[in-house]
Amino acid sequence: MGKFDETEILRLAPEILHNDNFDVESASVNDHLLDLHFRIARQPEMFAARIPLVDSTLPMPFLYAVPDDETDFLHMLGIWLEEEAATGCANWGVRALENGVSYFEITNHGFRMIDEVEDARLTASAKGSWDNAHVAEEMRSATD
């Protein structure tokens, strides 16, 4: 994964990624993606998301600064997941069903929304003042 140790991320993820709104039940890494399976408070089904790691070129909407280490990376991810869960992503997030698990689709602003007009507005906004592409790019160049 470059700068961070995948084994350390997998060891720390269940400990760091839980709160009143969501709880990670399992984590694995495949093709530079952290595959998280989690429960959202008051929702009966299991949810999942594939979270880009440093070597990925996919959007990393949870980064607001270059993380110092694996713990910092997971704390930023945890804050973002808590916000998504607290705002009702189980109701408005676009998901793809794979092997009985609902995977959220990640865009540059967060989970893709069912409301296409609002999703387009947020996508356009993310290219402005709170776009984090520079943070992800800085992380990638630090690993070269």
Question: Would you kindly provide a written description of the structure presented here, covering whatever features stand out?
Answer:
By secondary structure, the chain is an alpha+beta fold. The protein has one domain. Helix content is 37%, strand content 22%. It contains five helices and five strands. The protein has helices at 6-16, 70-86, 89-92, 116-126, 133-142; strands at residues 22-30, 33-40, 46-52, 95-98, 101-104. Strands 1-2-3-5-4 form a five-stranded mixed sheet. Helix 1 (6-16) crosses helix 2.
Structural Rg: 14 Å
Order of secondary-structure elements: HEEEHHEEHH
Strand order of the largest sheet: 1-2-3-5-4
Largest sheet: 5 strands, mixed
Uncertain runs with pLDDT below 50, 5 residues or more? none
Please tally the β strands and state the result.
5
Approximately what portion of the residues adopt beta-strand conformation? 15-25%
Q: Given the helix and strand composition, which structural class is it?
A: alpha+beta
Mean pLDDT: 82
Helix-residue proportion: 25-40%
| Count of domains | 1
Shape: globular
SS element count, helices: 5
How widely separated are the two ends?
11 Å
Layout of strands and helices, then pairs:
Blueprint: H1 6-16, E1 22-30, E2 33-40, E3 46-52, H2 70-86, H3 89-92, E4 95-98, E5 101-104, H4 116-126, H5 133-142
Parallel strand pairs: 3-5
Antiparallel strand pairs: 1-2, 2-3, 4-5
